[in-house]
């Protein structure tokens, strides 16, 4: 028992130190780039407003807390689609694969891309459009590893490559995620999770699109000719985020695994307001899962900055169908809806295979 208390205390100390050293500044909102790193395309965690830092597991953990990757049974393959801010035409797709490595380790790969639809090309001379269209290419690839110690403590590390480009301008960077989860109780009732995401080197755009041809400002011998001038873009930081979450399970039927999970989470954003949220999940026969959450902004800003687009309610459902009797193999469908202000909300749909 003494060892358990030492472990809990150690994790809490780490969390408090991280909060003290990671204090965000909401007056810097809008100064970071690559904000698609904050978008969650996965339906299970989106239905909880991404508050399940302590309980997330499987391939979705690569988006929130990589420590949960090693808590899947054997392996998992999942595909998701996120219809962002319905009415805007934006969407995000992600593919994830995870598999156990040995008894306690797990390795995962995730691929994500954003779709912006068709954007008209406009110029100074043709502000109404040239008749052509373009679409930016935002792409992420992540490689993560997680290790589980005696089913109590799991840790993980993920490296993600970030690419943003249009036809003539591009930027590339790396981000590192790290996380830890602690589980305790007779039925693993209590869970604590801490994750630090999107820490990495600054990114900067470059390419021919930042060059322009203008006449020589000091023509020699009266001869006028063009020179190519390169514009230097300003670099930008990644939107680092610290999450600290807890959850507790109350069982109604231990044998059939019917229980309700109550969770809470604190999110510290380096470039925007911090957020607090609470949520709940109801598990029925390991086949149906209902979930809902509520999130609010925390803290004030001296600047006239509005609230985050995701505040208020979120909800979702998961249906799990076993593919083989007395086996962990299963097929799952997840759906989530998050209210947004403005726009008409965000819809998430995911399909996953557990093997």
Key features of this structure:
mainly beta, 3 helices, 355 residues, two-stranded antiparallel ribbon, Porin
Task: Quickly describe the structure.
The chain is mainly beta and 355 residues long. The protein has helices at 2-21, 43-46, 61-64; strands spanning 75-84, 90-101, 105-115, 119-120, 133-134, 137-149, 153-165, 170-184, 190-199, 211-215, 226-230, 241-253, 258-269, 274-284, 288-298, 312-322, 330-338, 346-354. It has a single domain, classed as Outer membrane protein transport protein (OMPP1/FadL/TodX) (Porin), CATH 2.40.160.60.
Description:
By secondary structure, this protein is mostly beta strands. The protein has helices at 2-21, 43-46, 61-64, and strands spanning 75-84, 90-101, 105-115, 119-120, 133-134, 137-149, 153-165, 170-184, 190-199, 211-215, 226-230, 241-253, 258-269, 274-284, 288-298, 312-322, 330-338, 346-354. The chain has one domain: Porin (Beta Barrel), CATH 2.40.160. The protein is built from 3 helices and 18 strands. The strands form 3 sheets. It has a 14-stranded antiparallel barrel with strand order 1-2-3-6-7-8-9-12-13-14-15-16-17-18. Strands 4-5 form a two-stranded antiparallel sheet. A two-stranded antiparallel sheet has the order 10-11. A hairpin with a 4-residue loop joins strand 7 (153-165) and strand 8. The model has no long low-confidence stretch (mean pLDDT 87).
Average pLDDT over all residues: 87
Number of strands: 18
What is the fold named in CATH at topology level?
Answer: Porin
Rounded to an integer in angstroms, the radius of gyration calculated over CA atoms is 23 Å
Report the top-level CATH class. Mainly Beta
Distance between the termini: 35 Å
Low-confidence stretches: none
| The CATH homologous superfamily | Outer membrane protein transport protein (OMPP1/FadL/TodX)
> What is the CATH architecture assignment?
Beta Barrel
Order of secondary-structure elements: HHHEEEEEEEEEEEEEEEEEE
Supply the number of helical segments: 3
User: How much of the polypeptide forms β-strand, as a percent range?
Assistant: over 45%
Helix percentage range: under 10%
- Number of domains in the coordinates? 1
Largest sheet geometry: 14 strands, antiparallel, barrel
Q: Can you list the strand order of the major beta sheet? A: 1-2-3-6-7-8-9-12-13-14-15-16-17-18
- Helix/strand/pairing class, anyone? mainly beta
